[in-house]
Amino acid sequence: MKYLDKAGISKIFIIIFHVVGFIGFSIPDYHDFFLSFVPYHLLLMAAILMANQKEYNRNFWVAFIFVYLSGYLIEVVGVATGAIFGVYHYGETLGIKFLDVPLLIGINWVIIIFSVGAILKKHFKHQRTVKSLVGAAILVGLDFLIEPVAVRFDYWAWENSEIPLQNFTAWFFIVFVLLRTYYELDFRKSNPVAFTMVVCQFLFFLGLNLTIA
Questions:
Q1: Are 160 and 91 within 8 A, CB to CB?
Q2: What's the burial of 59, exposed, middle or buried (CB within 10 Å: 0-12/13-18/19+)?
Q3: ∠117-118-120 over CA atoms, to 5°?
Q4: Does the first or last residue of the chain, that is N or C, have fewer Cβ atoms within 10 Å of its Cβ?
Q5: pLDDT tens for each residue of 184-208
């Protein structure tokens, strides 16, 4: 039997951790236990994704830092003003906060931008704007699934418990800008685990939506 390479092992880890997380989130008696591991899960997924990048040149790190800081600072402004996504605040699930925003939220932006960016790399050749628009639409769809789960498990909470349309509109434009910048920076964007990462996230949040409905 042919041995598994790094990408193959990484895909297995991604699938296992999402399946285990889904089971844990689905059983009320284990909610608190599994919620305490959410920050570590995000860090692990980011580490796996980055470990499978094909290149780590200067532009890669510029993209990484740009996406992290942009995502984090947009959230800081969003929480402080309510002017970007709507009025919301973060709970305790995502871990340590600075300026009322979890430091890990920037890592989440890195995971979704680098994953979808890598998937769409081979499509719409030389049409960076089209790639970015398609990627933004995909991630708004993911956010649509994330929101009810996030509210249920204290990731964040919305004013009057209503998720505003403004949130999804803002997500679309922010993701578009982040992806457009990602594609402008010249580094090898291939990542063999990106598709597995995105599919697992979609299935994880879709499954939880059906479970907690």
A1: no
A2: middle
A3: 70
A4: N
A5: 999 999 999 999 999 999 999 999 9
